[in-house]
Amino acid sequence: MSAWIDIRYAARLLLKKPLFTLTTTAIVTVGLALTLYTFTLMQQLVFKPLTLGQDTPLIAIAGEFKAAHGVRQRVDPYHLNRIQSHSTLLQSMSLYQSAVRTVGQQGNEASSHKVHLTYVQWDIFEVAGVQPLLGRSFSPSDQQNESQSVVVLSYDIWQRIFAGNEDIIGQVVQVEAIPVQVIGVMPPGFAFPTQAQVWQIMTQTRLEPASPSNSGGLQAVARLRPGVTLAQFQHELATLLQRQLQALPQEFAWRADVAGGYLQAVPFKLSVDVLYQHYSVLVAMMLVVLLILLLTCINVGNLLLARVNEQIRDVAIRVALGVPQRRLILQMLWESTLICCVGGILAPGLAHWGMMLTNQALNEIFAMSGARPFWWTFSLSLDSVWMLLGAVLLMILITGFIPAWRALQGDINGILRDGTRGALSQRAGRVNQALVMSEIALSCVVLVIAVMLLGSSVAAQQADYGVQTEQRLTASVRLAWGSYRWNGGEPQARKKRNDFYYGLKDKLEQLPNVRSVAYFSSLPGTGGGTSHFEIQGQAAAVFSDNPMWNFEVVSRGAWHTVGMQLLAGRDFNLTDLAIDSRELRGSGSPVIINAAMARELFPQGGAVGQRIRTLDGEGWHSEWRTIVGVVSDSIHGPTLDSTSTPYTGYGLMDLRSWWMNIVVHYSGDEAQAMAALQQAIIDLDADATVHQIQSYQSLIKQPLLLIESLNQVFVAGGLVALFLAASGIYAMSANSIAMRSQEIATRRALGVPDKHVVGLFIKQALVQLAVGLVAGVLVALWLSAQLANAMVVDSHSYILALLGIPGLIVMLVLLATLLPVSRQLKHAPAEALRQD
């Protein structure tokens, strides 16, 4: 019964101050919602193991992650097979390789479609624990059949391309213009390993090579035996791999020196390259949100503390009358409990809204590529509910403890004798100072990181990539491998491929609304992936000391289409086609470099005629390439991405087997240009596909969308932190100064000048600022160093954050000190001394 009385008492107190109640409830709601949203995001992106409904989690076995390329390396299946044979901790394991391919129905009039296809070992669905909705799964005999390949379709592809044909099982379809037989259709939503739409069996020869090789790189997915931890398997993997590497021929000896191990076992979700690359950003985001939650707790606790200070005389009277301290503490906790519980009820709605926006953003980000991992759809789960309950309980304890401790630590006799003013004990004063310093430090961390990321995003969006993007249409063009086999680059194979590309270019340029057409392996502003290179005669003693470049291939006469200029030497021409690509290593091939390379690496001029080649850390190098020209600077890869470099080299598309991206400089209507491109492709070859058709501006923005979405969380957190810092620091300072009103009045009555009184509080504020800012800046520097591992932080944003945010906080603290002190100085000393 007494508990119900206490609840009603707390409710009445809150209803008497509606503005206070709404403010504190809003602060709690936002803090809990941001925490709930981030926890759910991290849980479903990373922390919760992928099980697909089974008892044991899935893990990935793959190569090292190369930050310069932004991808995890595929590995020799020779090693994977031996790990599979000798491991005692694995329950099951299957090999695969993901790729982008074309799929279509048979017939001359049927068009092909771009899909995400995964080449797999026969037992991939057994490892996943999911079987086809229609037809059957792969079998060992499918893998051994070298003459007839079979595929399983995703539910989406079955519906979208094959119109949900119930008789699809057993039919022959085209994959890369090669006939294959459909044996199954998977259930809706199944896209394992990440975004697969079609699964094709690999042959035994490719899966189980007799000896080590540098080709056929694969990845593996596995399940551990029940009770086995990932750490245990990682130890076993390192042991097994060491034995294998010791027996390798000398040409593969580099595999023993790979940092982290040539083969690495990680939770399966971290095998997604973009997730692993930005893992430190996600961790930093989680830490920042936890700091905001702590900041929220301190702020709400301080607001409740201010209410206790207003009621301290009432508390003292009740203690003097014999009310048990336990009862008083519970009464104060009920006030905190009511606020936190209401915030906890409202927070899921706000978090759900944030998840809806995130899902919409992901739909936009992956609309063109279709490369969204199938588990990247966010919603509140049971884990989220438990986390919310824990956060609410923690918040109740922290926000309730601060005012309860303050109320019961005061000098009861002094309060009854002197009243509220001036009853602040030395210990309580130290607590107030500690709270202010904590607010300063926490808000500094959050705001510094938010400004860094926001500024870096804005700088990336406004970056000059060295090209003109207006009235430019871009798309990816894929030729079916079955119709355009490379055959090692022999002349007829190259001619057939180049006839299509240049035939499409000529066909488009004859249209009245098309000015020019060009091909790039990756257009400036996209792509990325850096490699070391050396200039002939200038090799660095240490491999990593060699400079790095982005190497791309382009069509002849490509520069003017994107607004670039040839500055020196010559462009690629027909005489370059005389080079047989099968003999490039001996004869070399032409390369054109950008102005930055020519200016910085050949300061005396004379870049044209020099020879250069690409290197990697595994002893491999390309053929020597002869520099024939210099073009204006452009940047490949987004400026936020560490896979970009100022140096770029361009090879001739005609000599390479890479799939190409087309850029069309048009006039007039964009929709007409898109339709013309699509029709021209169909007219030339129905087996060829064109996809990801978009404006050049959209193409450049595409790689930035994901990191921008993460940055929005930081920005939201920064705005919350700014509000909490401004309100919290002011409230604590005002409360602390109000509690010392009698001390201020006494000093003034004794003749101390007002400016000395102001100076006393300013000095105290500066000490708090120094401690709080030093702690906050140090933590922010550590977090920014973690972020720099995943992205390029704009230097101007870095300086602005480290100088501007502390300056802003200094202004906030000084204002929070001067305003309440000024109000105290407006009262006559005698008036303040008479207050009870």
Automatic annotation (TrEMBL):
Alphabetized GO MF terms = transmembrane transporter activity
Can you give the residue ranges of the ABC3 transporter permease C-terminal domain? 287-409, 718-829
GO CC annotation: plasma membrane
The record's annotation in InterPro entries points to:
ABC3_permease_C, MacB_PCD, Macrolide_Exporter_MacB
Its keywords, alphabetically, are: Cell membrane, Membrane, Transmembrane, Transmembrane helix
| Topology in membrane | Multi-pass membrane protein
Every copy of the MacB-like periplasmic core domain together lies at 21-239, 445-678
Record field: transmembrane: 20-39, 279-305, 333-354, 374-398, 434-455, 713-732, 765-785, 797-819
Chief subcellular site?
membrane
**Compartments, as annotated in UniProt:** Cell membrane
Q: Which family does it belong to?
A: Belongs to the ABC-4 integral membrane protein family.
- Its name, as the record gives it, is ABC transporter permease
This chain's source organism reads: Pseudoalteromonas rubra
